[in-house]
């Protein structure tokens, strides 16, 4: 290969050049070996063949294509890049950081609304949910991120650091963190590997969230063989902040002399290349090597950092200094990405001195120090006259060096006004590039082609025993009680949780419930739900995405909240493959169409915005890609949290009302799954009808006309009715009318709601729904006898149904 390789260390040994950098950095080698490593100073691709370039990139495990390497040299830098620049671009230009394949399609999303304080432009979105008597708006900060590849390789650490990074995203907006939630996808539940990953992931989420003192508010869980080799771990975090107290993740105006302050754990080699790793296909033969791309969590240090941050936020507010600073967490790409993004977003460049970065390992390569994804770190950009105060705050007042070995705050660089991003080490320039070139990445216009698979509806014989079918459905791992997961998490810490995960279709909090907030907003409630059904997406990526949005919105409405915003984690396979890229494109279109159909209660001219999220590609292995997985969360709010509803039936002799006609839409249902079928007729919501339904149901709950409410999803109407009966052991007798086959009426998963209504409220409810042009249907009534009686084909004691539902998942996880 025609490439000049010069040593970065005088005592380097040439044989180490033949070992992939990624393996050297992530194989648990001793500190002494690090001092002997050598990497090329310059990589000159100009005289090399494409094959030689490819070989060189693979040798040093650089996440660049040949064309990207040539673009960096010929179009961006107009000179041969340094090794550190190649590492930087391989991370900052990855799908994880630059959205290079997804960015053009994400423009379809509506991201603004009258109450959106901040859309998806910084580390987290912010939605106003209340206003005090002085007109000050109070926002919920929301972030939604995935940590899939790390959790597949090292489940506990991968999930824990996913929670930690998401929490930092919210905190760095100047917010107090108040809740986390998770949406998890695991493989076939009968596989021992699935149990190992499940146990590690749930343990990691609990092992980080519980010590940090943040309640777990909501969750979503699905098992499917499509995730056997690629689990999905997506996390939502909520925080609260007053609108005029927001801290932005960019250098403020007039920041010409500002300095960068790195805060937290000393830098090590953990997580180096994590963003590139997250943007590549998982390979079993690289499993041990890839473990080094997973960061190491320290929840107790992060808890201490959060306390220190909150105290500094208060000081900056009191001194009217919030508009003089910028603040960002260190996630993908570490110091490099945090500093260049802080600078470039404010219209500046930056200069970083790696010798000023505290490290916990000797002999780390400069590229590792620059791009390591060591956890529990933040970065401030502040005026020089505030630097000593910030350093003293962390190092002395909150005593970081005594709390955790090597932890501290230190000045590591400064703002540049020429737009350049420059990194120095021991008097040498490792990076010199335009900051905007680094952050922009290289955008792709990927081709996409619709899949050619032809699906059909199965010709199934009507069940001989409907009681047995219902019991099997209730015990199915994708329907049964999630208590084995929820009971692992702390749900009541902070004292804000009103409805816990598993007690209703959405978790509900009272975020402003103490005396530090104005009395007029203390009853405000917020609701959070997460949803996505991979079997729907296997049939049709577009309608699967529509259903994910619709279901998440229904869940929020069912507790009495008004949906305000969505977030998404878009998890897909290889975008370089046209059929997999098509799945992504169709899903984005489905989300956009569903959002545009939901007009907002107090702003009918506006539609549901997407305010945060991420894209995760390359979720595939030798076994193939995961099912298309647009993981959706919905945030809602209500003015009076005391009106929030759970789904358990409240008393006998009430009426059960169905909202949403039953259709021949069993495709992707658990009922078909019990019969070894997938089907083709996936639920296809009528979006104009859906918008009217949610407004009618939400109004009915807020007017006190509904005793309990539950949405219809997995397992269909029969399972929804059964789940409502369990807590208070209240039975029911219902008859679902219509010409549809009875099994499809009971077990089909066409969406809708079941409402419990007192007899004396039925007339008023009918009037409201007529005004909203929403049909309703009386199904039957609740009864004192603890039995489930449905259409004369189901007659079960509640005790048997409840045992199946409560033990179904728990027994499979033993």
UniProtKB/TrEMBL annotation:
Record keywords: ATP-binding, Cytoplasm, Ligase, Magnesium, Metal-binding, Nucleotide-binding, Purine biosynthesis
Gene3D superfamilies the record matches: PurM-like C-terminal domain, PurM-like, N-terminal domain
The protein's annotated pathway: Purine metabolism; IMP biosynthesis via de novo pathway; 5-amino-1-(5-phospho-D-ribosyl)imidazole from N(2)-formyl-N(1)-(5-phospho-D-ribosyl)glycinamide: step 1/2
Binding site for Mg(2+) 1: 145, 614
Keyword Cell inner membrane (UniProt): no
Keyword Acetylation recorded: no
NCBIfam families documented for this protein: FGAM_synth_II, PRK01213.1
Similarity field: Belongs to the FGAMS family.
Job description of the protein: Part of the phosphoribosylformylglycinamidine synthase complex involved in the purines biosynthetic pathway. Catalyzes the ATP-dependent conversion of formylglycinamide ribonucleotide (FGAR) and glutamine to yield formylglycinamidine ribonucleotide (FGAM) and glutamate. The FGAM synthase complex is composed of three subunits. PurQ produces an ammonia molecule by converting glutamine to glutamate. PurL transfers the ammonia molecule to FGAR to form FGAM in an ATP-dependent manner.
Official protein name in the record: Phosphoribosylformylglycinamidine synthase subunit PurL
């Amino acid at each position: 290969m025609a490439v000049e390789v010069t040593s970065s260390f005088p005592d380097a040994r040439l044989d180490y050049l033949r070992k992939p950098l990624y393996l050297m950095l992530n194989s648990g080698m001793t500190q002494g070996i690090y001092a002997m490593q050598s990497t090329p100073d310059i990589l000159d691709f100009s005289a090399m063949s494409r094959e030689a370039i490819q070989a060189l990139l693979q040798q040093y495990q650089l996440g660049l294509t040949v064309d990207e390497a040539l673009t960096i040299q010929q179009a961006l830098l107009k000179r041969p890049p340094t090794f550190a620049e190649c590492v930087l671009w391989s991370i900052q230009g990855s799908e994880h950081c630059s959205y290079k394949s997804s960015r053009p399609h994400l423009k379809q999303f509506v991201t603004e609304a009258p109450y959106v304080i901040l859309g998806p432009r910084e580390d987290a979105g912010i939605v106003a949910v209340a206003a005090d008597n002085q007109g000050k708006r109070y926002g919920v900060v929301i972030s939604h991120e995935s940590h899939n590849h790390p959790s597949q390789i090292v489940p506990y650490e991968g999930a824990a650091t996913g929670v930690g990074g998401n929490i930092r995203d919210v905190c760095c907006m100047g917010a107090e963190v108040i809740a986390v939630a998770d949406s998890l996808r695991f493989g076939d539940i009968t596989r021992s590997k699935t149990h190992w990953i499940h146990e590690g992931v749930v343990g990691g989420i609990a092992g980080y969230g519980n010590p940090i003192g943040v309640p777990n508010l909501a969750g979503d869980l699905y098992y499917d063989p499509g995730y056997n080799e690629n689990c999905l771990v997506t996390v939502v975090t909520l925080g609260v902040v007053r609108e005029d107290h927001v801290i932005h993740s960019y250098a403020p105006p007039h920041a010409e002399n500002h300095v960068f302050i790195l805060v937290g754990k000393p830098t090590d080699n953990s997580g180096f290349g994590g963003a590139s790793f997250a943007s590549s296909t998982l390979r079993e033969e690289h499993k041990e090597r890839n473990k080094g791309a997973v960061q190491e969590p320290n929840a107790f240090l992060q808890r201490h950092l959060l306390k220190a941050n909150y105290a500094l936020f208060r000081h900056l507010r009191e001194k009217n200094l919030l508009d003089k600073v910028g603040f960002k967490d260190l996630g993908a790409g570490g110091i490099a990405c945090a500093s260049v993004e802080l600078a470039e977003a404010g219209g500046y460049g930056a200069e970083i001195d790696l010798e000023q970065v505290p490290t916990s390992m000797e002999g780390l390569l400069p590229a590792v120090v620059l791009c390591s994804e060591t956890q529990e770190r933040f970065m401030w950009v502040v005026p020089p006259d505030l630097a000593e105060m910030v350093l003293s705050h962390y190092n002395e007042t909150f005593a970081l060096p005594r709390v955790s070995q090597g932890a501290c705050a230190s000045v590591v660089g400064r703002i540049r006004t020429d737009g350049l991003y420059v990194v120095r080490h021991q008097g040498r320039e490792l990076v010199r590039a335009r900051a905007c070139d680094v952050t922009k990445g290289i955008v792709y216009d990927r081709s996409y082609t619709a899949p050619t698979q032809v699906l059909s509806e199965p010709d199934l014989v009507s069940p001989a025993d409907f009681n047995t079918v219902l019991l099997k459905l209730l015990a199915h791992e994708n329907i049964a009680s999630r208590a084995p997961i929820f009971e692992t998490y702390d749900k009541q810490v902070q004292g804000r949780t009103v409805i816990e995960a598993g007690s209703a279709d959405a978790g509900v909090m009272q975020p402003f419930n103490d005396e530090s907030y104005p009395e007029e907003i203390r009853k405000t409630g917020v609701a959070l739900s997460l949803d996505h059904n991979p079997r729907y997406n296997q049939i049709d990526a577009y309608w699967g995405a529509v259903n994910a949005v619709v279901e998440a919105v229904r869940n929020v409405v069912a507790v009495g909240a008004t949906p305000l915003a969505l977030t998404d984690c878009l998890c897909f396979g290889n975008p370089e493959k046209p059929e997999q890229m098509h799945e992504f494109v169709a899903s984005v279109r489905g989300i956009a169409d569903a959002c545009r159909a939901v007009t907002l209660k107090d702003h009918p001219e506006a539609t549901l915005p997407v305010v945060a999220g991420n894209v995760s590609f390359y979720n595939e292995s030798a076994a193939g890609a995961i099912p298309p997985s647009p993981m959706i969360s919905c945030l809602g709010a209500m003015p009076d949290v005391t009106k929030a509803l759970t789904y358990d039936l409240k008393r006998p002799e009430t009426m059960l009302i169905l909202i949403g006609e039953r259709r021949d839409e069993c495709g992707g249902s658990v009922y078909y799954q019990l019969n070894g079928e997938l089907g083709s007729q996936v639920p296809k919501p009528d979006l104009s009808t859906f918008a009217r339904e949610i407004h009618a149901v939400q109004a009915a709950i807020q007017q006190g006309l509904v005793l309990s409410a539950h949405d219809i999803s997995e397992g269909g109407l029969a399972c929804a009715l059964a789940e409502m009966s369990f807590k208070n052991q209240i039975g029911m007798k219902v008859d679902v009318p219509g010409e549809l086959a009875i099994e499809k009426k009971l077990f089909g998963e066409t969406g809708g709601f079941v409402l419990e209504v007192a007899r004396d409220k039925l007339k008023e409810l009918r009037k409201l729904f007529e005004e909203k042009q929403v049909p309703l249907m009386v199904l039957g009534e609740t009864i004192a006898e603890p039995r489930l009686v449905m259409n004369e084909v189901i007659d079960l004691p509640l005790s048997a149904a409840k045992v199946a539902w409560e033990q179904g998942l728990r027994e499979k996880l033993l």
